[in-house]
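TICKET: design request
STATUS: open
ATTACHED STRUCTURE:
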């Protein structure tokens, strides 16, 4: 399916925005520079597992109308670990990701959400600088702590993301994780509602205990997922977290105040691991009727970067 949109000659011509190609190239170069270039895998969220399932609409969504989400829909998804290393440990203190495509091709909504409520950069420059500060130093055998410290001191808006990861135990299973959009989407035409998305696991959020951390292998998540789904579908509520008046809808690094009003759009059920899906691109610029694209500076970077990553992995 995605071969059509993302085949090599058409990929850049079908982009939804006008970011120069060179910008996408520098973003993927920055990922490759820090994590290495690995044949045939995504430049970010390189390690992952494909799954399939279904979406069930909520009975009542009030003023929020997304026609594609008013009916049961099939979906594909991919769980992943953040970063560009296909061999990263499943216990790493980085984000977990969930790529989602709800509905059939023409009417689908594609999302790529992470386990942290906020992102680590609010511009292309900050994205590159964040990665450059974490590039392994050959003399140290890892990132230079002094460079990371200097980056953090100069970029305090990136700290809430890092604080969340430092304080949150890695998930026990991909199915016991929350996933957040970071961006604020706009719903409705007239009295628009701005909202971030949250996938809230129906079984609750559960992290590994210290004892479990020691007992698990570095690749336990795939087996754990098979085992969990073998006992039945895993479910998440897909919620809109409405922005309060003082919440910044233009910066995905900035935490929001609370409490918030919420709208339940429906429930996601993940039913089985899927053998297909490696060539899928969870490009968040693919939006259904009733949802407008976020207008922050990061969102516009994503579609061209995902396309560039796709082109490189398809070619290698
Ligand atoms: C500067 C902004 C960003 C850049 C340059 C970027 C880059 C990338 C790239 C290159 C990929 C791999 C695409 C592919 O080959 O299919 C990717 C995947 C992903 N990104 Fe981003 N990203 C950005 C922002 C975000 C944000 C804000 C989120 C969520 C809050 C996010 C979540 C994800 C997830 C979950 C995946 C994995 C999707 C899958 O399983 O296919 N990214 N990103």
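STATUS: resolved
RESOLUTION: sequence designed for all positions
ATTACHED SEQUENCE:
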């Amino acid at each position: 399916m995605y071969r059509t949109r993302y085949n090599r000659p058409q990929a850049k011509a079908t982009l939804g925005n006008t970011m120069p190609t060179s910008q996408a190239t520098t973003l993927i170069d920055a990922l490759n520079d820090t994590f290495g270039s690995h044949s045939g895998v995504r430049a970010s969220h390189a390690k992952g597992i494909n799954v399939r399932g279904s979406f069930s609409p909520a009975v009542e969504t009030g003023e929020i109308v997304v026609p594609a989400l008013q009916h049961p829909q099939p979906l594909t998804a991919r769980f992943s670990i953040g970063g560009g290393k296909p061999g990263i440990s499943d216990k790493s203190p980085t984000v977990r990701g969930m790529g989602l495509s709800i509905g059939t091709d023409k009417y689908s909504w594609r999302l790529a959400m992470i386990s942290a409520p906020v992102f680590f950069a609010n511009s292309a420059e900050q994205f590159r600088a964040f990665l450059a500060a974490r590039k392994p130093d050959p003399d140290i055998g890892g990132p230079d702590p002094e460079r990371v410290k200097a980056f953090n001191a100069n970029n305090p808006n990136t700290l809430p993301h890092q604080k969340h990861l430092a304080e949150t135990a890695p998930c026990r299973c991909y199915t016991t994780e929350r996933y957040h959009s970071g961006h604020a989407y706009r719903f409705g035409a007239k009295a628009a509602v701005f909202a971030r998305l949250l996938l809230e696991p129906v079984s609750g959020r559960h992290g590994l205990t210290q004892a479990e951390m020691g007992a698990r292998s570095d690749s336990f998540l795939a087996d754990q997922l098979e085992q969990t789904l073998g006992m039945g579908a895993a479910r998440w509520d897909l919620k809109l977290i409405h922005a309060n008046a003082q919440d910044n809808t233009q910066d995905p690094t900035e935490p929001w105040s609370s409490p918030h009003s919420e709208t339940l759009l429906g429930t996601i059920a993940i039913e089985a691991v899927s053998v297909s899906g490696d060539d899928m691109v969870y490009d968040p610029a693919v939006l259904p009727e009733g949802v407008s694209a976020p207008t922050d500076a990061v969102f516009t970077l994503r579609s061209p970067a995902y396309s560039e990553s796709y082109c490189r992995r398809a070619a290698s």
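CLOSING REMARK: The pocket of protoporphyrin IX containing FE is lined by residues 27-28, 42-45, 48, 78, 80, 97, 99, 112-114, 119, 121, 127, 181-182, 252, 281-282, 298, 301-302, 305-306, 309-310, 313 (CB under 6 Å). The radius of gyration is 19 Å.
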